[in-house]
Amino acid sequence: MTKKAIIYCRVSTNNKEQHSSLKRQAEELIQLAFQYDLQVIKMMEEQASGYDIDREAILEILDDIQSKQIEVLLVQDDTRLGRGHAKIALLHQFRKHGVKVLTTHDNGELTLSEADEMVLEIVSIVEEFQRKLHNSKIKRGMKAAVKNGYKPHQNLKGFGSGGRSMKEAPIEEIVRLREMKLTFQDIAVTLRGLGYSLSKATVHRRYKQYEKEQLKEASDSASSK
């Protein structure tokens, strides 16, 4: 089955010589794609520093990778992807999503230096421990809530129905957990464990909004008497 690929070409400055470099990169990468029988669905070119991660073409490529649009990325060499930390961050994302990087420099799959391989391994280990730490925090928040009498299966409507992602903040649950003396951080972690993608700041903001609304209702009620 023919694999889908994107060609990425980059130069750092905007001058005539660099424009010819973009054209040369594209021509060589088209030949590489033909050599490996790849279906090129997109060709991206940009003029930007390799140290900058905030590049429009790169961000679009990352979107395509996350949505499983491509399986292979074609570049002239690893420096075209980026330099320094930007390059390592991108290579980590490509490996994480199973995307192969082919280069004309290697005439095939990208070969990294021992130093780069070591850094990528360290990044992967750190990310795995961060994931475990995040899960531990969720469990901690849940235990604290349950210990104080919180019963998620009774309190949350629709909880457990297909595992769908719930975007709105359940203000009743935020208030209930706050009354149990949980911190905003613990409330956020607890609700994330139940499918609500909420940050500590969002929980705090919704709770403060609730308090303002309660004060306004009390004030309006007093004025009407």
TrEMBL record:
Q: Which Gene3D superfamilies match?
A: Resolvase, N-terminal catalytic domain (3.40.50.1390)
Give the Pfam families listed for this entry. Resolvase
Molecular functions per Gene Ontology: DNA binding; DNA strand exchange activity
Looking at the record, the residues that make up the Resolvase/invertase-type recombinase catalytic domain are 4-149
Belongs to which family? Belongs to the site-specific recombinase resolvase family.
Q: Which PANTHER family match?
A: DNA-INVERTASE FROM LAMBDOID PROPHAGE, RESOLVASE HOMOLOG YNEB
Name-wise, this protein is Site-specific recombinase
